[in-house]
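Q: Could you fold this chain for me?
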Amino acid sequence: MRILITGINGFVGVHLANLLSRYDPSCNIVGVDLNVDNFFEKYNGDQNKVELLNIDLTNSVKVEEIIKDFKPEQVYHLAAQASVSDSWKNPIGTFRNNVFGGINILESIRKFYAICRFLCVCTAEEYGIMDYNGAPIKEDFKISPTNPYAISKAALDFFSTTYFLAYKIPVFVSRTFNHIGPGQSDRFVCSDFAKQIAEIEKGYRKPEIYVGNLAAYRDFLDVRDVVKAYYFIMNKGKPGEVYNICSGEKIRISDLLDILLSYSKVKNIAVKTDNLKLRPIDNEVIYGDNTKIKMHTGWKPDFSIDQALKDTLQYWRSKI
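A: Sure. Below is the predicted structure, expressed as structure tokens.
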């Protein structure tokens, strides 16, 4: 199997590559990222089966060369500017990176290898603010993105399904809810909490943790369950379909913080609000319905939220 992974050196990309090395050790992987340094320090498979390319996906010529020469049978398109906060600071760059890169891949597949299976990794942020009376979000709910990151992903979501309808490219779209786990950047809430706790334990900061909005409810899933869902969608899903990837349960951010604080070696850590961590627009509740992916593919999560949080904290303890 010839597999192309964009964003391979990111948080999710590394976990996906490791999963593929276990599920299909004979597969040949081409990994694309803006920075591929130190990837093999995190990769557990056969390094001879992986080729790394330092490429900007907005360069259409380079993308065409990859698809034409390698002819991937599967493309996992993970590469993106994935921070909502950063998207407010640089909306133009976010749209350029997230939309144009994906279109270049779709166009190249259309031209050179239209039987390639393409997974477009999108986001639950696309659903935006809606009145759904507390029910979990399903794939047929209207999308109404309310931040630049979500808008960019919604655009590529539409492009992907359009290429399925127009050119019969076997496209799949995931709308992935919040995911956590070892290796995640501290730009994201649980990893941010875990890093601060690890720094406090080491004596590098006072016993104070700085937070944003703790009242919001979100749907969190371990990254190792997320990449397994990507694999199941790619290999067992139905082309043209959109799949929520989520736990199906909501949890308050303050409860996640409480769990992490309960694991800390330092007690009585003060919690303080940092206004810079607050978003201009923030949804009160976002959680999903994962019935469809379970029915179509047989996927189910393996990791509990407690395990995900423990492993995230342990990761930061090893890094600090």
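A (continued): The chain has a mean pLDDT of 94.
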